[in-house]
Amino acid sequence: MAETGFSCPQTREQVINMYFLEHRAKLLDVAAFLDRLDRARPTASNVDFREAALNEAVRILVDGQPQRAKRILDLLSDSTTEIPQSAHGMKGASGAVRGNSGGAS
Predict the structure, then answer these.
(1) For the chain, what is the largest distance between any 2 Cα atoms, rounded to a whole number of angstroms?
(2) Splitting the chain (105 residues) into consecutive groups of 10 residues, what average pLDDT does each group show?
(3) Residue 87 placed within a domain
(4) Which of 1, 39, 40, 101 could cross-link 52 (Cys pair, CB 3.0–4.6 Å)?
(5) Domain count, the chain
(6) Measuring CA to CA, how many Å separate 19 from each of 1, 10, 16, 26, 94?
């Protein structure tokens, strides 16, 4: 009888063997970005909404709860249905939603 509840055909060891180094590099890249933020001079007294969203995403990443990717994507996605106003000085999306990061502004 097959086990239920596991949707990945690989074992945990197989997944680690295949993907560990790639994701180790990504974590180091995120850590370097956060270190760079720590060393940068602040431009305002409040935290930028993108920084707040990233900090909340990191909390989700390590909370051990299921569906981390979905929850982080939901956090960083704009679910409004209205037509967006053009972003002053920007060519595209900001990658996070203002006011959508756990109450931080």
Answers:
(1) 60
(2) 74 96 97 94 84 95 96 89 62 68 44
(3) no
(4) 101
(5) 2
(6) 29, 12, 5, 11, 28
